[in-house]
């Protein structure tokens, strides 16, 4: 089950490099990279080749073990957090119901948050070990920013878990399938929890260090922040880590607020059974074809939603100017955190009152 | 299999814990502490408490130690050797404390004996929260109050001293 995730996350990185450049060009009325391959699609391959063949420099006076470890740690949360995100209808395997998520536990989304919170170490270690004042400043900013916004992010997630009465994200998806708002809206959490969704969205920008909150790498002030001294593949790892974190966080957001792998009014398991019926319902590796198609369709729906969310990330990046540092802190502590608390209390009251 | 995982992570925990107190560079000490916490989290999972493990990583490794690192980096305590003198009194007290601690630990371990395998059934989140908010409600609230007091105290201490005290 881990294979589709790894493939999807890595593909997302490659595609996002291209999407980001083409879309920024579109927004700024330029052409963007369009020479290599159809629509410039192979640009990412050229970028990767360039990164691989460049020289990896280590600055004098760098703390070498930490300097080498930091870019690797950048990938750790990105390559582990998706294990708790469900991606398809449950299937029957040798008379056991198997839910489509890699780690099916009570702990659920806590595991996501715990692993995601470790991402900050990569930035802090990179900044500390580079022996460069810009790097150090960038990583100090990163540490403060990520801790501040983690609170708001976690509180908005908690509000989603309350009506679902479980930390397991599969239960959150089931809850959204079982509901319908105002008689015609899908049962997505984004409607009753619009406030929490807003907090989650803003905090997720800050958590992934994307504009308008990319203070840790603000070019105009800090050269490139924590990765100033990194070159070649080591720099590329930070770059990939950022896009992977965007992808997994988008997957979390889609699961929490937009019904995850489900489509409103469509039973993907039934669709898979019908399609399998057209093919004569063969067995594949000891499982009926429908058991393969269901998760496949679910994963496709999830990834389509994630893609839209990622496009939104890019759109915002090229539309908004960067915040100032004091504005960032004020927004995090004095606006988002109280809003998240208000949302949490309101949702708790509505849940106990039986409205949600 | 479980024994192998236990031994591996117990070793990691002990070695990194030793590194925390012996490493001359405070940044490495903090990072070793993170490794210790991680290894302990794995031990929690082995004991059937994955929620506790996730909390430990989320709160300690993910938040509190970041602040430790933050302060250390801000003060720029690079490669500073400990200069505090170690008097004979300190060593004696420390040795005495260590002997007492291990004595208590060994005594309590010997008294309880080895639990049966499988005696530690994984605790579900519902059981845990039910116990926390009914049977242990008072201790829970008191801990909350204690944390609140600590937060207020920290705010008071961190506040800039009022103007008249400047001549100090």
How would you describe this structure to a colleague?
The complex is a heterodimer of chains A (356) and B (168). Chain A has 356 residues and is mainly alpha-helical. Chain A is built from 13 helices and six strands. Chain A has helices spanning 2-27, 43-53, 64-80, 109-117, 119-129, 133-164, 169-178, 194-207, 219-222, 232-257, 268-278, 289-317, 325-352; strands at 91-93, 96-98, 180-181, 185-186, 283-284, 287-288. In chain A, the strands form three sheets. In chain A, strands 1-2 form a two-stranded antiparallel sheet. A two-stranded antiparallel ribbon of chain A has the order 3-4. The longest helix of chain A has 32 residues, at 133-164. Chain A is globular, with a radius of gyration of 21 Å. Among the domains of chain B are: 1-78, Up-down Bundle (Four Helix Bundle (Hemerythrin (Met), subunit A)), CATH 1.20.120.1200; 128-159. Chain B has helices at residues 2-22, 26-46, 50-75, 88-112, 125-135, 137-158. The model of chain B has no long low-confidence stretch (mean pLDDT 82). The A-B interface holds A 63, 66, 105-107, 110-111, 113-115, 117-118, 120-121, 124-125, 127-128, 136, 139-140, 143-144, 146-147, 150, 167 and B 27, 31, 34, 50-51, 53-55, 57-58, 61-63, 66-67, 69-70, 73-74, 124-125.
């Amino acid at each position: 089950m881990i294979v589709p995730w790894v493939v999807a996350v890595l593909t997302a990185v490659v595609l996002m490099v291209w999407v980001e450049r083409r879309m920024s060009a579109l927004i700024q009325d330029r052409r963007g990279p369009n020479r290599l391959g159809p629509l410039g699609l192979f640009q990412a391959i050229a970028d990767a080749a360039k990164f691989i063949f460049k020289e990896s420099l280590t600055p004098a006076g760098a703390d070498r073990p930490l300097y080498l470890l930091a870019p690797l740690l950048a990938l750790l949360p990105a390559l582990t957090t998706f294990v708790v995100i469900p991606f398809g209808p449950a299937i029957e395997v040798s008379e056991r119901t198997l839910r489509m998520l890699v780690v099916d536990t009570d702990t659920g989304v806590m595991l996501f948050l715990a692993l995601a919170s470790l991402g900050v170490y990569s930035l802090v270690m990179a900044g500390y070990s580079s022996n460069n004042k810009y790097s150090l400043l960038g990583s100090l900013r990163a540490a403060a920013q990520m801790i501040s916004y983690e609170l708001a992010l976690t509180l908005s997630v908690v509000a989603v878990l309350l009506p679902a009465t479980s930390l397991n994200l599969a239960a959150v998806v089931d809850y959204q399938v079982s509901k319908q708002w105002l008689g015609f809206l899908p049962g997505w959490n984004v409607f009753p929890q619009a406030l929490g969704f807003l907090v989650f969205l803003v905090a997720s920008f800050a958590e992934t260090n994307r504009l308008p909150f990319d203070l840790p790498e603000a070019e105009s002030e800090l050269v490139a922040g924590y990765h100033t001294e990194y070159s070649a593949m080591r720099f590329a790892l930070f770059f990939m880590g950022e896009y992977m974190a965007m992808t997994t966080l988008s997957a979390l957001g889609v699961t929490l607020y937009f019904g995850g792998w489900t489509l409103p009014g469509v039973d993907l398991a039934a669709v898979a059974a019908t399609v399998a019926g057209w093919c004569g319902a063969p067995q594949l590796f000891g499982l009926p074809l429908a058991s393969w198609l269901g998760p496949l369709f679910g994963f496709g729906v999830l990834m389509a939603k994630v893609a839209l969310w990622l496009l939104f990330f890019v759109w915002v990046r090229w539309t908004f100017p960067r915040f100032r540092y004091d504005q960032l802190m004020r927004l995090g502590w004095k606006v988002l955190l109280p809003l998240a608390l208000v949302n949490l209390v309101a949702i708790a009251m509505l849940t106990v009152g039986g409205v949600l | 299999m479980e024994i192998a995982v236990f031994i591996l992570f117990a070793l990691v925990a002990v070695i990194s814990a030793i590194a925390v107190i012996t490493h001359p560079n405070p940044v490495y000490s903090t990072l070793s502490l993170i490794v210790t916490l991680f290894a302990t989290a794995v031990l929690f999972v082995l004991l059937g408490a994955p929620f506790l493990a996730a909390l430990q990583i989320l709160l300690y490794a993910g938040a509190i130690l970041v602040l430790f690192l933050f302060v250390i980096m801000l003060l720029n305590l690079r490669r500073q050797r400990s200069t505090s003198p170690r008097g004979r009194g300190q060593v004696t007290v420390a040795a005495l404390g260590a002997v007492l601690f291990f004595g208590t630990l060994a005594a309590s371990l010997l008294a309880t004996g080895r639990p049966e395998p499988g005696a530690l059934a994984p605790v579900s989140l519902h059981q845990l929260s039910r116990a926390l908010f009914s049977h242990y409600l008072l201790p829970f609230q008191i801990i909350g109050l204690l944390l609140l007091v600590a937060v207020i105290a920290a705010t008071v201490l961190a506040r800039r001293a009022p103007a008249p005290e400047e001549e100090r």
